[in-house]
From TrEMBL:
Family the UniProt entry places it in: Belongs to the glycosyltransferase 1 family. Bacterial/plant glycogen synthase subfamily.
Domain Starch synthase catalytic, residue spans: 2-218
Keywords, in A-Z order: Glycogen biosynthesis, Glycosyltransferase, Transferase
Pathway: Glycan biosynthesis; glycogen biosynthesis
Name by which UniProt lists this protein: Glycogen synthase
Domain of life: Bacteria
Keyword Transferase: yes
Residues that hold ADP-alpha-D-glucose according to the record: 15
Gene3D superfamilies referenced in this protein's UniProt entry, alphabetically: Glycogen Phosphorylase B
SUPFAM superfamilies reported for this sequence: UDP-Glycosyltransferase/glycogen phosphorylase
Source organism: Deinococcus navajonensis
Gene label: glgA
EC identifiers of the protein: 2.4.1.21
């Protein structure tokens, strides 16, 4: 099975969140399972690692394109270099333009390099245009929604000429969305099959509450049997308390005590249990709910927060950090994240929606019990006999769940039993990777000789 993944980021070369983590782990496991895997991503100026330049040429309608290659874990990584990506950082205000340019370059580059996949797998809106062009070539395609909230929209009259798509695409049945080009919709409509990163999220996005205006398209896909959820896995080598270089290594809860002691010393915390948070500071993640609940949380917990994002939420946490039981580290710090996962007793994720989430899996692997809202992948991954779940996206519901967690913490045998069950869960990529390969086999076996008009 020859597979090409297309995504805007891939760990460890480029990463802003869970998408990069998935592309850093899934392809390697698929390669171990016998697939021939290529990952295509932009060649960012700040790319971690130095690709070997394979090719540099001028493509019609695109201009000068560079292609770099790296081989790692049995996977071929191709990085497409365009002048629009020669700037610091990954994402910018003109990303629809930048990823339209990237999207138009992918298939010509694959053709130049003689790469013809059995299945092309696009990830999120940044790969939506690639899937649309692959659809027109009658390739077998899969498309994964990692977060439906971000859709890649731009005024259609201005952007249509950028895409290289035929006029049939610029209708409400295809990529037009209330007068805009919508690259997420292009991927949804163009793909043979759409997946999301958890079964629960696949159900949720067919509703008005979670469908982000695309629920009509998604209901149709669901009714046609072309929408499903495959739960993300976790890179269990990267996240392993027995071998983690950033924490005192441990294999059981006796060893975890040293990590908790170290975190307590690092932030000068008192003897109250520690509630950890590692998150983007955003409304989606419910960080405003956490802040509103802090007056009650600090009665029982030390709260340690690592994250960056919304300036208002950042400022609120900076203010709260003056409190003896609240610690806040701004930005993302990989080593500190590991220390929080290992050292905290509980871990809060009050998300308004959560397509899958990795933090709750990491926390349980490190013996830290998650306190989560019942949404998306949090429902699929946090058993009620391990973590603490709450239904409403309110500070009161979060505080109540944390009170329940604290009461359980006082019953050490009960807490220990929950923690040990969490550490024993298998969140490896082996099962999900196999599910994707089985999906690819079905898609590759389909007859693409006829038109897929109206999908």
């Amino acid at each position: 099975m020859r597979v090409v993944h297309v995504a805007s980021e891939v760990f460890p070369f480029s990463r802003s969140g869970g998408l990069g983590d998935v592309l850093g782990a899934l392809p390697a496991v698929q390669a171990q399972q016998g697939a021939q895997v290529t990952v295509v991503s932009p060649w960012y100026a700040a790319l971690a690692g130095t690709p070997v330049e394979l090719w540099r040429d001028e493509l019609a309608q695109i201009g000068v394109v560079r292609v770099g290659q790296l081989q790692q874990d049995g996977v071929q990584f191709l990085f497409i270099g365009l002048e629009e990506f020669d700037r610091p950082g990954l994402y910018h205000d003109d990303d629809v333009w930048r990823f339209t340019r990237f999207g138009r370059a992918v298939l010509p580059v694959l053709a130049k390099l003689g790469i013809l996949p059995d299945v092309l797998h696009g990830h999120d809106w940044q790969a939506g245009l690639v899937v649309a062009h692959a659809h027109d070539l009658r390739w077998s395609t899969a498309f994964t929604v990692h977060n439906l909230q971000y859709q890649g929209r731009w005024n259609l009259a201005e952007s249509a000429a950028w895409t290289g798509l035929g006029p049939e695409w610029f209708s409400p049945e295809r990529a037009e969305f209330y007068g805009d080009l919508n690259l997420m919709k292009a991927g949804l409509v163009g793909a043979d099959h759409v997946t999301t990163v958890s079964p629960q999220y696949a159900r949720e996005i067919t509703t008005r509450e979670y469908g982000e205006g695309l629920e009509g398209v998604l209901v149709r896909l669901s009714l046609e049997g072309r929408l499903s959820g495959i739960l993300n896995g976790l890179d269990q080598e990267r996240w392993d308390p027995r071998t983690d270089p950033d924490v005192p290594p441990y294999a059981d809860l006796t060893g975890k005590a040293a990590a908790t002691k170290a975190l307590r010393a690092e932030f000068a915390l008192d003897e109250a249990p520690i509630l950890g948070v590692v998150s983007r500071l955003a409304g989606q993640k419910g960080m405003d709910l956490l802040i509103e609940a802090l007056p009650e949380l600090v009665q029982d917990w030390n709260v340690v927060v690592l994250g960056g994002g919304d300036p208002l939420l950042t400022a609120a946490l900076q203010g709260w950090a003056q409190h003896a039981r609240v610690s806040f580290a701004e930005g993302m710090n990989e080593a500190l994240a590991h220390r929080i996962y290992a050292g905290a007793n509980a871990f809060a994720m009050p998300s308004r929606f959560e397509p899958c989430g990795l933090s709750q899996m990491i926390a349980m692997r490190y013996g830290t019990l998650p306190v989560v809202r019942e949404t998306g992948g949090l429902v699929d991954t946090v058993p009620e006999d391990i973590g603490f779940r709450f239904a409403e996206a309110t500070p009161q519901a979060l505080a109540q769940a944390c009170r329940q967690a604290n009461a359980t913490f006082q019953d050490r045998p009960a807490w220990t039993a929950r923690s040990e069950r969490g550490m024993a869960l298998d969140f490896s990529w082996t099962g999900p990777a196999r599910q994707y390969l089985e999906l690819y086999e079905r898609l590759a076996a389909r007859d693409h000789s006829g038109s897929q008009e109206g999908q």
